[in-house]
Amino acid sequence: MTVAIDTRAGTNVELLYLTVDLGERPLLNTVSANAAALSTLAAYASNLTSSALPERWSHESGLRIVRTSLASPWVTVISDLAANSRPLGYGVAGLYGLHRLLQIVMNWQNHRADLAERHLHLEALRDAMLRESVLKRPESFGSESRSTGEQSAVSFTHAGPVTGEPEPGQPYDSQADEAQQHLDSATAAGQELGQITAVEMIAPDDPRATGT
């Protein structure tokens, strides 16, 4: 799959280019599932990177498709928010946030080449995404923010589960609970994506952006 994102609304004009191998002659449902997974990750990234939005989480990113295909590799070009969107810079931040999350998913895939092994070690992906989430939005993750701290290194060999349950004696935190639910959805979306073969930021005049 190839995704490019046109960031004309921001001052830093770049596109996100993503290629995902969906196998030979993929089912239409497979393409649809991957598109839905990408949309979920984009919304999660936008929520993590915007300090100007309300506290409640959004299920939309505002990123826009410039071009796409139904073949394998799946090719899609996406832009950030339109020029009249608010808050300013929200789409650009979400774009770079999505780039980072896709890098995390690709690294996890490369360390878990076998599909059955990925199911067994899904907690490693969640742990990596949690670390990135805490760095971006620590106030939303309650006790997990304190336990995770400022660690940015990601270990894909870690096999211990990461749970969103509060520690004994800790009061219930509805904001943290909502954040955990969105983290779980993003982790499931990362698992759903086909094999990522490339993810990078490119210039809008890059031939890959237009497919020429």
Topology, element by element:
Elements: E1 15-21, H1 28-49, E2 64-68, E3 76-79, H2 90-111, H3 115-120, H4 122-136, H5 142-148, H6 174-192, E4 195-202, H7 207-210
Antiparallel strand pairs: 1-4, 2-3
Helix pairs in contact: 1-2, 1-6, 2-4, 4-6
Quickly describe the structure:
This protein has 212 residues and is of the alpha+beta class. It has helices at 28-49, 90-111, 115-120, 122-136, 142-148, 174-192, 207-210; strands spanning 15-21, 64-68, 76-79, 195-202. A hairpin with a 7-residue loop joins strand 2 and strand 3.
Question: What does this 3D model show about the protein?
Answer:
The protein has helices at residues 28-49, 90-111, 115-120, 122-136, 142-148, 174-192, 207-210, and strands at 15-21, 64-68, 76-79, 195-202. With 212 residues, the protein is an alpha+beta fold. The protein has a two-stranded antiparallel sheet. Strands 2-3 form a two-stranded antiparallel sheet. Helix 4 (122-136) packs across helix 6. The two termini are 16 Å apart. Mean pLDDT is 76; it is low at 5-12 and 148-164.
Query: What sort of overall outline do the alpha carbons produce when their principal axes are compared?
Result: globular
The biggest beta sheet reads:
2 strands, antiparallel
H-E order: EHEEHHHHHEH
What's the number of helices? 7
Integer-rounded radius of gyration: 17 Å
- Average pLDDT level: 76
In which order are the strands of the major sheet placed? 1-4
Residue runs with pLDDT of under 50 for 5 or more positions: 5-12, 148-164
Structural class, judged by helices and strands?
Answer: alpha+beta
- Helix coverage percent: 40-55%
Q: How many strands appear in the DSSP assignment? A: 4
Strand fraction: 5-15%
Distance between the termini: 16 Å
